[in-house]
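hi!! sorry for the late reply, been swamped w classes. u asked for the two structures so here they r. pasted raw, havent cleaned anything up. first the sequence of the first protein and right below it the C-alpha cells
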Amino acid sequence: TILMKGGAWWLTGSVSLLSDALESLVNLAGASFALLMVTVAAMPADEEHPYGHHKAEYFSSGFEGGLILVAALAILWAAVQRLLTPQPVEQLGWGLSLTVISSLLNAALAWAMLRKAREVRSMALEGDARHLFTDVWTSAGVVLGLVAVAFTGWLWLDPLVAMLVAANIVREGVSLVRRSVDGLMDRALEPQVQAQIEKALDGFRHPTLRFDHISTRRAGARRFVDLHMH
C-alpha cells in the first residue's frame, strides 16, 4: 500500500497524496514497533517482573501516537509550501485509482486487526488498527478533495485537503498518547468488571470474613485485583 500511494503521489505531484503516503509510512514504522512490543508483552513473568511484561504494549501506542504527530508536522510543512506556490495536478485518474485500491486493502486489514484486538484485549494491536482506520478516512478525504480539484480547477484545494488530513491525524495521535499514558498510570478496570468482582466476593462474605481496600488495574491484556481479607 505504501508503494501504491507513493506511486500515486509521483504520478500526480499532489501534496495531499504525499500526505497520504507519509501517513502510510508511519503505519509501517508503528506496526514494526508494535510487533516488537507484543512479543515482549507475551514473555512470562520472572523474578524482576513478577506481574509480567504486559505494559510493554502501552509503549507501542505512545510511540505510534508520537510518530503520527511528527508525520502531521511534515504534512503541514509540505502543504504550506504548495499553498504558497500552487502547481497543477497531473495523471489524476491513475493516482486516484492506486489510492482507492490501497485504501480498500487497509480497510480490510484494519477491520481484522481491531476484531482481534478486542478478542485478546491488546492495546498495541488496537492502536495500530485505529491508526489504519485513520489512514482509510484520510485517503477518502484526499480522493474527494482531488476530484473537486479536477472539476473546479482550484489548485489551492490540494494543500487545503493536506492540512485537513494533518489535523485529523493529530487528533488520532493525541488520543493514542493519552490512552497509553492511562495504561501506564494503572487506570482502574471498567465499572462493570468491578461490579463482577464485588458480586464474586459477596459469595464469600460472612460475619467472620470481610474484604476491603479492593483496588484494580489493567496491564495490557491482563487484569489485576488487590484486596485485604480479614
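now the second protein. again sequence first, C-alpha cells right under
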Amino acid sequence: MNLVIYAIPFFALAIVLELIYGWVKQRNTYRLNDSVSSLFLGVLSQAQRFVTLGVGGVIYLLITDHFSTPLMDPRHWFTWVLAMVFYDFCYYWMHRMGHERTILWAAHVAHHQSEDYNLTTALRQTSTGFLLGWVFFVPMYMLGIPAEVVVTVGSINLIYQFWVHTEHIPKLGFYEWFFVTPSNHRAHHAQNNLYMDCNYGGLFIIWDRLFGTFQEERKDEPAVFGIRGALKSWSPVKALTHVYVDMAQDSRDTALWRDKLRVWVARTGWRPADVALENPRAKTDLSDFKRYDPKMSRSVSLYCFFQLVAVVLLLGAMQSAELAYWHGVAGWSMLLATAVITALWMEGRAASALQYWELLRLGALGLLLLLFWSKGASLSALSPALVYAGLNAAFLLFWLRPEPLRQSKVAS
C-alpha cells in the first residue's frame, strides 16, 4: 500500500505550522517562488504514474516468477522488519549512486535544486526516477519479499524523510548515531565542500557510518543549500531535464567515440576534456552566494499561489478517479502546462507575452471539457474545472497588468 497519498494532508499541515513557527521566531525559511517551484515538482512526481508504463512492476513480475526464492509471509512480523531494514540498505546505495553517477544524478538533482531548506523541499521530487531507480531494489524481490510489503515500507521510508527537511530542529543527541535527522540531512543538502557527497541514508544513518560517507553538521560551517551549477530558473521542465540535456550535448560535441559513450556512465562531474575546454560550465561561487530570487508583484504572487492550489486539487481529483490512460495523459499535460507557465510568471517575464500562453492553455482546457461533455460527462462533474477557468480568466483580465514586471533581481 502506498501510504504517501494518505500522508499528504499531514504534509500540508506541517508546512503551515513550520511557516507560522518561522514567522513567530523571526526566522522564516520560506519564499513563495521557491516553495511553489518545489511543490509543483512534487505534484508532477505524483502524477507521472499516469503517463509512465511501470517498468519496475514488469521487472518485479519477471523476477518473482522465474528468479526469486519463495515469497515470504506478509503476515509475519519478521518479513516487515527485514523489509524495512533491507529497503533502507538498498535505498542508501541508490541514493549514493544518484550522487556519484551522472546518469542517476540527472534524475535526483531536482531534489537538491532548492536554495531554501524547509518542508516543501522534501516534496521536491523527480519525475524520471522510475527509469533506473527500480534496479537497486531487485535484491528485495529476489529475496522473496512480497511487492505489497516493498511498496508499503518504501512509502514509510519516504514519509519518514519528510520531517528531516527543516532548519528549526537542532541536533538530537544519541538519536543522531542511528537515524537520519534534520541535522545530518542538512549536511546532505549543502553544497559546501565539507558536506559534498555525504549522509545518504533514508531512515538509518548507520550505513553512512559503516561505509565512510557520514559527515556531521558543524556550527563553524553553516550549510549553503542548492547545487553547484545553480539552475536560475523555476521551470519544472528545466529542473527535470537539464542534466540529461548537458550529457546529450557533451556526447554530441566530443570528438572521441569512447568519450561519447563514457559520458553516460561516468562519475558525476566528469566531462570530455575537449568539450570542457571549449565550453566550460560555471560553478557557484560560495564566497559570494546569492539565491535566485526574481521580484514578483503581489498580484503575481497571489496568481501563482492560486495556480498551486489548482494543480494540487486537480492531482487529488485524478488520484481519486478511475481514469482511462488518455484521460490521465490529458490531466498530466494540464498540470505540466500550468506549472511551466506559472514558472514564467515567477521569473518576471512580460505579462503581455504570458497572457497569450495563458489563453492557449485555457483554450486547451476548454476543448478538453467540451470533449468530456460530448462523451457524457455531466455539467456538475465538470463544474470545478469551469469555476477554475472562470477565476483564471478573471485574474488575467482584471487583476494582472499587461505591462512587463520590473527588472528581476536576486536577494541573498
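hope this helps!! also noticed smth abt the second:
The chain has 17 helices and no strands.
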